[in-house]
Amino acid sequence: MIPGSGNRRRFRDLSEQEILALAISSEEDDARIYRTYAERLRGDYPASAAVFDGMAEEEDRHRQRLIDIHRKRFGDVIPLLRREHVAGFYARKPVWLMQTMTLDQIRGEAEAMERQAASFYEVAAQRTTDAATRKLLGDLAAAEAAHENSAQRLEDKHLGDEARTAEDDAAKRQFLLTWVQPGLAGLMDGSVSTLAPIFATAFATENTHTTFLVGLAASVGAGISMGFTEAASDDGQLSGRGSPLKRGIAAGVMTAVGGLGHALPYLIPHFWTATVIAMIVVFIELWAIAWIQNKFMDTPFLRATLQVVLGGALVFAAGAIIGGG
Question: Is 33 exposed, middle or buried (0-12, 13-18, 19+ CB in 10 A)?
């Protein structure tokens, strides 16, 4: 029977045959993960895909060596034992998470995979008193350490400086198009467009509860509208802007956040205390937008400041005048 999550084996209770079986299944899983990475990257980052193809082949060769050792010592029948069956054994992130991972995150995850495997076997070897088992674990640790060196050689072969730079630039551009640009547009819309209704309501009623409800409705409504508009405006196939779902989430969430920033202070019962805090929040929001434009969109800081702060000030003034009229 396969051990369940509530009935995991302890590593120290495994026999040498089971340790070999665990190593074999782990190498098999890692090869599958590397091939999945390669397929995920092949269209946009072919050089990195070639690296992961090579790493998968390395894992296949190591798995075959382990199988050969198992046949020699224990026969052809390999026990069914996987990482999730052993308490304390290093885990791998679900492959579906890679859909949201950047190129650098995938590279970092691959490096972590090799380090975790080598580290686990080294620690396990130190805690083992049986000489044969200790040698086996030491050999596995050395094999995993060799994987990391092999990965570096594969990168040197397939991923030169020019290819890495080109792929890094493409990854940065994709991140900007998919997340930063829609998110920034949403933050600007949410921060600026809700100023007038929130502060008009505030100065017209001087009622913090009513002002908060208006701000909440305006922020959430604007977030939903911006999210659907961004997701429906472009499927990303021709423009290369990436997943419409991701862009819609970025735009919608940041729009709502931009409006809620200066609506939440009106949870404070005292009107002028809430209003002063809301004004401070608006000032911080507008400067944050200018900073993001300068850092990620290469907009000159002075121009970004004039555009955002001046525009925000005009909208705020309109709301205050209308509400106080």
Answer: buried
CATH 3.40.50.80 fits 9-159, yes or no: no
- Tell me how many degrees the CA angle 162-33-157 measures, rounded to the nearest 5: 25
Q: pTM above the 0.70 mark?
A: no
Q: What share of the chain is helix, strand, coil (3-state, %, to 5)?
A: 80, 0, 20
Higher pLDDT, 207 or 310: 207
Using DSSP's 3-state secondary structure scheme, residue 176 falls into helix
CB 98 within 8 A of CB 106: yes
The dihedrals phi and psi of 87, each to the nearest 5 degrees, come to -65, 135
Q: Name the amino acid, one letter, at 287.
A: W
Residue range 150-178, pLDDT digits in tens: 555 555 554 555 555 665 666 676 777 77
Report residue 128: phi and psi, to 5°.
-105, 130
Angle, CA 49 vertex, CA 96 and CA 153 arms, to 5°: 120
Q: Where are the domains of the chain?
A: 9-159, 172-324
